[in-house]
User: What shape does this take?
Amino acid sequence: MPVQNKEEIIIALNEKIDTFNHFISPLNKEEFEATPNGKWSAGQNLDHLIRAIKPLQLAYRLPKFFLKLSFGLTNRPSRSYEQLVEKYKYKLSQGGKASSRFIPPVILFENKTSLLKVYERQKQNLIKKVRKQKENDFDKYILPHPLLGKLTLREMLFFTIYHNQHHLESLQQRQSAISVHQSS
Assistant: This one.
């Protein structure tokens, strides 16, 4: 997926988050709450993605001088989307996992609709903030990522795009495996 500039980022954020939400929406109670082999349920994946996008919302709301003062400025060009994805996959392969504040509690089916609405609202708010940014600011300011270290604002958006895809693919593979097992 070639993602580079602000408009491509906005399109990708919309697409990836909407695709994730469309996958979750029709799940029944059993599918939404299932935790096969101790893996997170679909509901927990949704909650995790909400927890991951919230700090990004805050970062885009802060004045630039505060970002500079708190985290500094980058001393390198932003990685491409593909390079960022490669780094994330490498960190996962080395045992990288979500840190405590991003680990979801048990999520009940009764919370599905409200969580989907929250995530949609979070997406819209983030996109609104991204639209207001200057293109060169995406490569100037940095934020800390608990697994990947310091990322530029652009890289953090690349991560958010891929993070949705990663969790969606994980849930889709699980559903496929369940379907194959049930039809055997």
In short: The chain is about 65% helix and 5% strand. The domain at 6-179 is CATH 1.20.120.450 (Four Helix Bundle (Hemerythrin (Met), subunit A)). Strands lie at 142-145, 149-152.
